[in-house]
Design a protein that fits this description.
By secondary structure, the protein is α+β, with helices and mostly antiparallel strands. It has helices at 56-65, 95-103, 107-112, 127-134, and strands at 8-13, 40-43, 47-50, 72-73, 85-86, 88-93, 144-150, 155-156, 165-168, 174-177, 180-185, 198-200, 221-223, 230-234.
């Protein structure tokens, strides 16, 4: 997933984080109401996007905020079984921010099918269909937050996001499993960013090599950057 030039920034959810003072995140305002948004399927059961999920103003606020975080450039030599990547990275466990991103934005309504424009009861997705899509009952977001920033020539090679077992922060804590990864793009061509597409390799399977061979349906799917777009992909 190599950017060609300029910078790309994304909020992501994933693995272990070093606990440190929590960031003073910019307020999640202004927001787009759920009735103005929709889930768009790129690959059935695998890749979904929400265009204009965050406003350009809010994205700009977060991009301005990023230099205040202790981002660290990843080493050029990956550990065993890890993909080679070179980018600026920061991660933290922040249940309060994760909950705000889940419930104060339109994300919860869109992913659980309870948005105000979901139509009649017959038109709303069933509980079973939602469980099938998301891999179980949706509780919210993993409190593990990652910031990735890409400069010219930086990249993240082909890799899989693995499902993680976590204790979902509630009272009491609930054993849970992550099933999808959420990315939110803060920059794009509109802000002068070039390259930086997220590229998916369907049909290859975890037991196969990224050889580039395979059927026509296994051709890579490139999702370009859009300011404020949310992308969900199955782990």
């Amino acid at each position: 997933m190599p950017p060609k030039s300029s910078k790309k920034a994304a909020l992501t959810k994933s693995k272990s984080a070093v606990q440190e003072p929590l960031p003073n995140w910019p307020t999640l305002q202004p927001l787009v109401p759920s009735l103005d948004l929709s889930l768009e399927t790129i690959l059935e059961g695998q890749i979904i996007v929400i265009r204009n999920f965050l406003t350009s103003t809010l994205c700009k606020n977060y991009v301005s905020f990023l230099p205040s975080l202790p981002l660290v450039t990843t080493p050029g030599q990956p550990r065993k079984h890890e993909a080679l990547r070179v980018n600026d990275r920061y991660q933290v466990d922040d249940p309060v921010f994760a909950e705000a991103l889940w419930s104060k934005t339109a994300l919860k309504e869109l992913l659980t099918g309870f948005s105000s424009d979901a139509g009649t009861e017959d038109e709303k997705p069933s509980t079973e269909s939602l469980k099938k899509l998301w891999g179980g009952e949706v509780l919210g977001l993993n409190p593990r937050v990652r910031i990735y920033r890409y400069g010219k020539g930086q990249f993240f090679n082909q890799h899989y996001d693995e499902s993680n077992i976590i204790q979902f922060p509630s009272a009491p804590a609930i054993p849970a499993r992550t099933t999808w990864t959420l990315l939110i793009y803060l920059t794009g061509p509109a802000t002068g960013c070039k390259g930086g597409e997220t590229i998916f390799y369907p049909e290859l399977g975890k037991a196969k090599e990224f050889s580039g061979s395979g059927s026509e349906s296994a051709k890579p799917i490139a999702v370009g950057l859009e300011v404020g777009m949310a992308l969900l992909h199955k782990q």
